[in-house]
Amino acid sequence: MNAPLIATDILPASRGRRAHTKAHNRRVILDAARQVFAELGYDQATVRDIVRATSLASGTFYNYFKSKEEVFEALRDATAATLRPQLREQRHQAVSGKEFIEGTFRTFFSFVAANRADFDAIMRNDLVPARVNTWEIIAGFDELHSDVKSAIDRGLLPKVDAVFLTAAIVGIAFQIAETMQKPDGPDADSASRFATALILGGTSNLTAQAKASG
Amino acid sequence: MNAPLIATDILPASRGRRAHTKAHNRRVILDAARQVFAELGYDQATVRDIVRATSLASGTFYNYFKSKEEVFEALRDATAATLRPQLREQRHQAVSGKEFIEGTFRTFFSFVAANRADFDAIMRNDLVPARVNTWEIIAGFDELHSDVKSAIDRGLLPKVDAVFLTAAIVGIAFQIAETMQKPDGPDADSASRFATALILGGTSNLTAQAKASG
Amino acid sequence: MNAPLIATDILPASRGRRAHTKAHNRRVILDAARQVFAELGYDQATVRDIVRATSLASGTFYNYFKSKEEVFEALRDATAATLRPQLREQRHQAVSGKEFIEGTFRTFFSFVAANRADFDAIMRNDLVPARVNTWEIIAGFDELHSDVKSAIDRGLLPKVDAVFLTAAIVGIAFQIAETMQKPDGPDADSASRFATALILGGTSNLTAQAKASG
Amino acid sequence: MNAPLIATDILPASRGRRAHTKAHNRRVILDAARQVFAELGYDQATVRDIVRATSLASGTFYNYFKSKEEVFEALRDATAATLRPQLREQRHQAVSGKEFIEGTFRTFFSFVAANRADFDAIMRNDLVPARVNTWEIIAGFDELHSDVKSAIDRGLLPKVDAVFLTAAIVGIAFQIAETMQKPDGPDADSASRFATALILGGTSNLTAQAKASG
DNA sequence: GATGAATGAGAATTCATTCAT
DNA sequence: TATGAATGAATTCTCATTCAT
Lengths: 214, 214, 214, 214
What we know:
Oligomer: homotetramer
Number of strands of chain A: 0
Helix content of chain A: over 70%
Largest interface: A-B, 52 and 52 residues
Largest sheet of chain A: none
Number of helices of chain A: 10
């Protein structure tokens, strides 16, 4: 598939033909799963569908994954494994609230734009969006939460409720990402600028209010 | 809708009472579906599960709904039918940006708090959150979008991108609603205040920036 | 339906509103069945289909017929009840082999042409033609057989095997009737002339051979 | 085809022998279907009935056939595949009308006599005989029609309406075949002689008449 | 490890039929 | 008699998973 940025197979340093085949098959299955999930949505998709999108035998699937759920998780984790370190690094290098917030959104939206297929495979569902945990894992909800807390402690961000702020960042990120998926949807740059200004303005307002009422 | 107060009404073995009206049975099925979806999530749930949670015969289900999907949609639409008019009215009566935004969030979060079971049934999914369109339908994405545009036109809200703003409101609303579902999660009031201040501060900041750069 | 020649309801001489309704409903069901069988074929059709083609309630069906099979048989018997007496009379009045044979075919083919819908309802099946007994009953196989024997005895027809001859007449009749059902299929008159000449020539030949070899 | 000699091959509990080849299982299913169709008739028979008559698992059926209809067609086509080439060859070698007609009937009736089980499985239906197309396919209606036309052109057969003649041959063949199925029914030889003489005498008569009236 | 046919539990759905009204 | 909702047995068919090769 067109998934250049995502490390679909993160195999140690195994060499030799055997290892190559294993890595290759795992990859083949994940690519097929990506395509199938994007097409049918997670719940309509079946293991059979994934295997059929492959040149492998059905039994072979089970040498690599126990179930549809496991492939999905692998896909999600592969996505997270690519995105989350970028997000972390970005935030850890931030020396201002603006860098912290803007870096987060820009990294996320750029990733979404560059990996539309993956995002689609993981998020698209006809009736019901994607599992709560999905976002949390992909976006590293917990990591973000602790980074937000630390940023507040370090004075980069105003003293606001970290749980709420984290939720707001994640909610904005994924909801705007959805709009980006549409044909003629906005680009990553304008999305980043909007979201950043919203959060920065919003958080200053929150502290201003707190001071006023405090 | 908000049927937690209505017991599942299992008439023991009282056949003969054809007080089993059609409306009643429809209700019974919807209640069962609510419970089953909340417990198992949409994609794990089966029609059988729903029927089993009922005292009805399997065939009876199909006198009311064609499929699992249809019950889900009925549940979602019933939720939307309760919530959306409240949201609309709230916003149409708003004479300030604060009222517009705060009314929206307060109505939404209060609803979520009061209808935890419904929200759970519709949103909870083990692997993949509720179908994309679910939110849009429940929250009335399109209605919100047009109300936001109109509020901007009327000068209630600053001139910002209405699509982004709508997405931000919806994203924040649902993501914070998720945190509210947790035990010891925040209450509707503090959620409303946080979200309102965030959006109001954020939007002023957006126009301030625009002026500065314009 | 368009079934003018077929006595769908042969009720004694019952008068009064009640009787009228009963007769009427029976008729309604038979008409619906005719249409449904012609459309779907006997085995695809269900009692539900027949009831649906009616303004009656499903339970009402069972006041008139026990099953799909029973309606089919009623339809077939109504057809037979119209056709067979005509055939019998025709043959009993015959004073020559030609009249006997030609009368049989002409009556049959005319009936088929005039009652295409009924013929279709009874004969049409996607995969498997119509039950052996169907023909036998409609055409009055046994009656024909005994009439054929009697015609041979009376010297109207040559002395040939009556069982074979009966089968031949019936086989030709129904198979040619099939071709008549097709758009631009042959008309009853030419079908009758062909079949008659075939049987008459065939039977003389059979006796000629018998004499030669005897 | 003619598999009455082949026992259903129920290997007791001998799992492990993967000598169960695909071809073997297909055969097992077809044999079971033959038996079930002959017993219950096409429309009463269910896929379950066929599977039950087998030592296979229910899912296995669907590895070989998509539906009851498909097995039926396979059975019918297998019958046709055996019979039709014989019929064709017979007719193509015919150097006289008698050979043409007699060869056709003799081949057909001998086949029916020798393959009573198949014929039964395909033709027997409680209420409605075998699907219309069944005969045409088994007998090769279209092939027969074109062979008849060509025989007329070559002067083997008199100039009569080929459509009628084809229908007559097929009708006689199948109707007489039915009588052969009965206990103490006629044998293939006498059936062939009767049918042949009938058609030959019939067709000469038809041309004689035509000349007379022409 | 790869294969792919066999498995059989179980899901969705239909439908003839009943029966309280 | 007519109604039509309820019933639940029965059927079709799918699918994850196993396992002999």
